[in-house]
Amino acid sequence: MEAALMAILFAAGEPVSLERLAGAMDAPEEIVETALTELSDRLSFERAGIRLSRMRDAYQLATAPEFADLVRRTLETRRPPSLSQAALETVAILAYREPCTRAYIERIRGVDSTYTLSSLCDKGLAEEAGRLEVPGRPILYRLTANALRMLGVTSVEELPPLPEGEELPANTVETSTEASEIPAEASP
Question: pLDDT tier at 102 (50, 70, 90 boundaries)?
C-alpha cells in the first residue's frame, strides 16, 4: 500500500486528501492514514531526498529540506518573494485566530488590511472560509495549505504558543452566535 500511495502522490504533484486516497485504495481512511504515517517515518529514517508532508487532511510528496538549496540551484528556480511586514502580521493573526474577518485583522493591526488580505489570497496563502452569522455577514478568512507548508507545519495547532503577555485580543464577534453577545460597536 505504501508504494501505491507514493506513486499516487508523486503523480499528483499537489496535496491529495485522505478521503480521496482512501477511495482510490478502496480502504478505510484509518488504514490509509496508518500506511501514510509508516511511509513518512520510512522516508525520514532513510534520509530520502523526499518527505511526505501533511497539510490539514491532505498529503503531498516534497523535497527534503536539506536538499532544497541544491534542487533550487539545479533547476535554476528563484526563491519566492519574501512577504512584507504587513503580510507577515496578517499571516500571524490568521494563524493564531483563524477563521477571522478583515475587520478583526484591522483591529489588531490598527490599519486598513484590505490590500494585504487580497494580496495573500492572490498568492494562495489565505482563503475565504465562509461568512460570519452576524448582520452584514462579513467574510471569514483562514490560511491555506500553502501557507501552512510555508510555515513548516501541518496545522495551526502545531504553532508555538504566543509569548506570555502577548496574547491577541478576544475575538468576541467571530465566536459569538447570539446577537446579544455582539459588542455595541459591531451592532447595526
Answer: very high
- In tens, the pLDDT along 117-139 reads 999 999 889 999 999 888 889 99
Alpha-carbon distance of 105 to 94, in angstroms, equals 8
> What is the per-residue pLDDT across 17-63, written as a single tens digit (0 to 9) for each?
999 999 999 999 999 999 999 999 999 999 999 999 888 888 999 88
Strand partners for 160 = none
Burial of 64 (0-12, 13-18, 19+ CB in 10 A): middle
Residue 90's Cβ-count burial label (10 Å; 0-12, 13-18, 19+) is buried
* Separation of alpha carbons 125 and 144, rounded Å: 5
pTM as predicted: 0.54
- In this prediction, residue 168 carries a pLDDT of 62
Strands across the sheet with 50-55, in order?
16-17, 58-63, 50-55
What domains does the chain contain, in order, with CATH numbers? 2-75 (1.10.10.10), 85-175 (1.10.10.10)
Question: Cβ distance 174 to 104 under 8 Å?
Answer: yes
Residue 98 carries which side chain, given as an amino acid letter?
E
